[in-house]
Amino acid sequence: MRITFCCADSKPEPWLEGLRAALPQADVSLWQAGAPQADYGVVWSPPQQFFDEQPGLKAVFNTGAGVDALLKLRVAAHTQIVRLDDAGMSVQMAEYVCHAVIRHFREFGAYEADTRAGQWSFRKPRSRADFPVGVLGLGVLGERVARSLAQFDFPVHGWSQSARQIAGVRCWHGTDQRDDFLRQCKVLVCLLPLTPQTENLLSQRTLGLLRPGGYLINVARGAHVVDADLLALLDSGHLAGATLDVFRQEPLPAAHAFWKHPKITVTPHTSARTLRDESIAQIARKITAVHSGQSVAGTVDRDRGY
Ligand code: NAP
Ligand code: GLV
């Protein structure tokens, strides 16, 4: 079996060594123009040329959870697309989101500023009941995040495409229930895949439905948010703040208003990183399964877009 590796932004050698160790019977090599046809691809943001020159791939394994960039490319219809299915990402995402929610709820940013100024002062404790948190997307990452938030006794709501049941989470689904879901929430966490249906979903109208003093945490994709609408809602005071890990253009351009906005916390797309060892182990298991004709979790439905 031949495997070709084509991942932008990753040092190839450790991946190649890991894949060779996990699949000793396979011929694993770094893709380059003109490389021979492989059976399987391990990819992140490959160029279109990769797929044009590899029309016979049986499957490609994405080294991330989101496949929005991959689905913009022309990929042969018979090539199965498989996303990373957790592989250590959901616990990172739960840490990141719980940290952001708790930091805002407990006003730790303001406490840090006070103590840096040598001030020993207290703020009135806030009511958890007044901080319902909504999670958009209840998939591999969203469900783990919603469950983790519920552990801290926040009222938690979740919204997905199809109906879901999660202990401790009030679940909503479908476009018909979206606005009612949003009206319940003070904090909104975005963990949707980027699809034509979800692009620009977080606009003046939808974010305007959050409770006054609302807070946005976007850890999905930058194009879910209409940047100018978010800034307007922060400046009008309807939203109290935002924590943003993902942006329309990455790295976030130096002149972008998000960098210096006093109500925005920016992180550099780091909320849930691809963990190499876990990912290699998962991809190797799945290549073996696909090669022997079995189905695998994380297979992307191209019509659905995720
Ligand atoms: P997933 O398992 O595919 O789950 C997607 C969830 O979104 C599902 O619950 C799905 O509903 C729901 N959904 C999709 N389209 C919808 C729509 N039109 N209306 C309502 N609900 C919709 O994805 P995941 O693994 O949790 O990852 C989510 C996203 O996180 C990825 O696509 C990626 O963009 C982003 N991500 C970011 C980072 C980072 O470091 N910032 C890291 C990893 C991933 P159903 O349950 O009904 O299908
Ligand atoms: C990262 O953003 C991913 O989709 O894995």
Note the topology.
Blueprint: E1 2-7, H1 12-22, E2 27-30, E3 40-44, H2 48-53, E4 59-62, E5 80-82, H3 89-105, H4 108-116, E6 133-136, H5 140-151, E7 156-160, E8 169-173, H6 174-184, E9 187-190, H7 204-207, E10 214-218, H8 227-236, E11 239-244, E12 264-266, H9 276-291
Helix pairs in contact: 1-9, 3-5
The structure holds NADP nicotinamide-adenine-dinucleotide phosphate and glyoxylic acid.
Give keywords.
306 residues; alpha/beta; Rossmann fold; seven-stranded parallel β-sheet; five-stranded parallel β-sheet; 9 helices; 12 strands; elongated; binds NADP nicotinamide-adenine-dinucleotide phosphate; binds glyoxylic acid
Q: Work out the count of structural domains.
A: 2
CATH topology group of the largest domain: Rossmann fold
Residue runs with pLDDT of under 50 for 5 or more positions: none
How big is the Rg? 21 Å
Average predicted confidence as pLDDT? 98
Distance between the termini: 27 Å
Element order, helices and strands? Answer: EHEEHEEHHEHEEHEHEHEEH
**Helicity, as a percent range:** 25-40%
How much of the sequence lies in strands comes to 15-25%
CATH homology superfamily name of the largest domain: NAD(P)-binding Rossmann-like Domain
Characterize the biggest β-sheet: 7 strands, parallel
Q: What class would the helix/strand composition place it in? A: alpha/beta
CATH architecture of the largest domain: 3-Layer(aba) Sandwich
Strand order across the biggest sheet?
8-7-6-9-10-11-12
* Rough outline: elongated
**Bound ligand species:** NADP nicotinamide-adenine-dinucleotide phosphate, glyoxylic acid
CATH class of the largest domain: Alpha Beta
SS element count, helices: 9
Would you count the extended β strands for me?
A: 12
